[in-house]
## 1
Amino acid sequence: MTPGNDDGRRSPERETHDDGALLAALSALRTTPVPPPNELTRARILAAFDRERAVVASRRRGGSRYVPRGLVAAAVLVAFSWSLFQRAPDEFDPWKSIETRLAVLEARAERASLERSPKPVISVEFAPGSLAEKLRPDFEVTGNDPGLLRLVAARRLEGLDDAGALNRYRALVERYAESPAAVVAKQRIELLAP
Amino acid sequence: MNEDTAERILVERAGAGDRAAFSALHAAHREGLRRFLFHLAVRQNDLDDAEQEVFLVTLRGLDTFAARSTFRTWIYGIAVNVARTMLRRQRPRVEIEDVPVDVDPAGVEEGRELADRLARAIARLPEPQKEAFVLHHVEDWSFPEVSAALGVPEGTLRRRVFEARASLRLWLERREVAR
């Protein structure tokens, strides 16, 4: 017996010479019935084909329902970092110039300084017969604004003329431009203006 | 249009999602593959699972089927791998008495008895010899076809078949695999 034949096909003659029993058994084996196929198996295979094609079609449309977990985690991280960046104070904003950031810091320091040292509250006692008592009607108009209070006193007691009183007012208005009493002061300036 | 060309078209259409084409491929190769798996000693109970696994692997590879070989040699190559996996799972290794044969309870026909004995003997062969022997002698494939399916050089296949035949002849003569 030799291993194989020239054309690669079986050679019945040679096999018959050497393998009589084997050939007979082979012949019988080829006709042995194989267990019949199961139709359920065929249905499963075709269903698997449908599923596989649906996945492929979904990927081609770019609408795969599968999203890698790593991608989701990265997106969440980026969004979180961006929100922190958005909320960052101006002085930490890397996109602004160093001058701008310094100006912001100075303004913040100034505000903090003012908050730490608020303007003292002036209290006025209205003792009977005192100077303050005499100024009371004007004081009620000017509130607790000490500058305006002094102005009224000067007008009444120091005998300032209109021009002198006006200059005094202007200085006070500049000083207390942001105070509610400044509004009253402006009205007085208009009244006193020649 | 020859058979190979027609089949190649079916493969292309199945790869493009044509269910009918895939169904036709399945119908054309199902019986031969089941017989092949059966002769490789895959148990009768596992035959449906093996068939299903072969076609699942096939359909997943349809897009990448390079057509360097015929569809038949490709799918039988897949079947060999599936059978190896299943036979490994069937360990302890198939014994002579466990060979899956569709035995006639009477068992009186001489031909049937011969076939049973050969099936038992084939199951005893080492896997490389068994695969080569079944494809060449039972399925009647040429050595180039077997070589394409198994990815083994022809010279190696010839030696394996030669050794398989020698072993089988010896066992049959000694009636080592008699029932």
## 2
Amino acid sequence: MSTGGKSREAAPKTVLRQRKLETGDVLFHEGDWAGEAYLIRSGAIEILKRNSLGLLESQEILGEGDVAGEMALLANRPRPSTARVARESVVLVVAKTDLDRSLTNADPFIQALFRVLSGHFMSLVAKKEEAEAKAPLRNREPDEDPLTALLDISGDEGSDGR
Amino acid sequence: MQEPSKILNRRTFNPGEIIFYEGELGNQAFVVQKGRVRIVKNLPGGERGTLGFIEEGGIFGEMALIDQSPRMASAVAADYCVLVAIPEQVMRTKLQETDPFLRILINMMLRLIRRTAGTTPIPPEDMKTLAETAQWTPIDTPESSK
């Protein structure tokens, strides 16, 4: 196992910014293009999504140790949801530029590990979204949990509609 | 730059072959390069239940490397499988040498995957590890060393 080569002090450490948020603040809006995710140090952040009627539907409440807005780091696409501060919170700002720089400086093994993990995550997200996209066609109730819809669909996977 | 394939170790399994057993101490994680892996859990009463399948590109067995817990389920090759084995020491050394920021994001990815898959609850130890790592992060440090 050869780990030689690069000297250890060459690996620069990334310094994160911290942001304090008040109850009711909107951290980000669905549809925004952005390059930041947030690690929640304290507080509570509610994730909301616009439903087919145009109403904001609560998806989940994130708390300490959770991450919000991760899609901005992993895919070139707009925010899939809105994040609203449910209780005074402190978040660490994770910028895509920081991630990219850190990955560039990282060992190839770590680069590969991260790529595999983010690839796995994105394929799970794609599967989930595919199921959610079909949900409205099955006259989903406005307040139905999207996860329930997801389960319904995987439930009758066997009968191929046509 | 060193190719990851020189550090990693490729292994093949025939359908039905056991990759690891539940309860064992794990010293390797695996990335599925080809084939599918069935994750099987022993149930009370001696029965076995399938927890799920790991598809190509999926990773499994990494928990044991991160928190040194015994394998929570067995892994069985469902097809002819090509796996990339990641030895514990490689994982540990590499992670230690990694920018702590990136280390946190790797933990974050593991968590996101589990949450999105929705099959495995996040073990409290893992949550604890993550919370500890997160608090480690320097806050409000002036950006002097750029």
